[in-house]
Amino acid sequence: MWIALIVINPLAQFSAQNHLPYTDAFAGSSMRALVTGGAGFIGSHLIDRLIGRGDEVVVLDNFSSGHATFLSHHEPSGLLTVVNGDICNPEDVAAAMSLNIDCVFHLAANPDIRLGTRITNTDLNQGTVATYNILEAMRIAGVKQIAFASSSVVYGEDAPLPTPENHGPCMPISLYGASKQAGEGLISSWVGTFGLQAWIFRFANIIGARGTHGVIFDFIHKLKNDPTRLEVLGNGLQEKSYMEVGDCVDAILHVMASTNEPLNLYNLGSHDTASVRRIAEIVVEVTGCHDAKIEYTGGDRGWAGDIPRARLAIEKMLESGFDVSMNSEEAIRHTASVLLEEIGLEETT
């Protein structure tokens, strides 16, 4: 076990000017936060906000999917401590939790939903068991606040659209969704039994800069390999909400600042949806691969456990005073542009 600050060549930081005002709500109330999965996609953007408002941050990450370059621009601040450890290892979790933590942001999980169909204990270990490890370490260390990254997939595929937070029973159809629902249950029980305070956030599809997987990322790489053809899993009619990652992390911090129940549950998403067919068209346009033929593999979903249509009700989020700066198609176009730049391709449009 070792703890160190990362010192490497920095990656250009994603500009988040549209979201900066929300950091003002925390002026004068700095804390020491533990972010699991902090070197990952959502986690690194959250850390941008936390350090930007003056918080100290401890990152717990094993770098299996996270990137040190996502954090390196914070090294000069002196506010970042990185623990290279695994949430599946209770000793690693306990070591990070012992560093005078005030609040935990538990974002680490298996990032690849499809992986669970091949290695069926992946989400059990990286989701359910890991969440238990986090909560038990909090209990022992006396840490009382946790924010948890859950998902819209806990609702399953028969939920009404848009789906409100009080829909139930939740019947997930993927192992990833089951692990998120189990994590929610564990957190709720720790709130009731050990006096924790928790915020559970059920995310729509989160996209944006630093993305390392997902449909837009996959489409760009497919076109990079063959600019004449784009394979789309399913029939392209799958339709979901997409939320830009800056909006997501700002919504998290805004809701946490404006709510104070023992257990707080919020959907985070945008006002609309976009189809996979439309995403393919946007990526073809942004990459400049105008001659690419879009080909569909068929079927109503991309893989086993995929939910063809999903849209979250976001009235609670809006009532808290937060609204998104981008809806689905705007977020998709923005993401395609920034991922092109990060991957090292040039836009030709």
Could you characterize the architecture of this molecule?
The protein has a domain at 33-203: NAD(P)-binding Rossmann-like Domain (Rossmann fold, 3-Layer(aba) Sandwich). It is 34% helix and 18% strand. The chain is built from 9 helices and 15 strands. The chain has helices spanning 41-52, 90-97, 122-141, 175-194, 215-225, 245-258, 276-287, 315-319, 328-343; strands at residues 3-4, 32-36, 56-61, 80-84, 103-106, 145-151, 197-203, 205-207, 229-232, 239-240, 242-244, 263-268, 274-275, 293-296, 309-310. The strands form 4 sheets. Strands 1-4-3-2-5-6-7-12 form an 8-stranded mixed beta sheet, sandwiched between helices. Helix 1 packs across helix 6 (245-258), helix 2 runs parallel beside helix 3 and helix 5 packs across helix 7. The longest helix is centred in the middle third of the chain and has 20 residues, at 122-141. The N and C termini lie far apart (48 Å). The model is unreliable at 1-28 (pLDDT under 50).
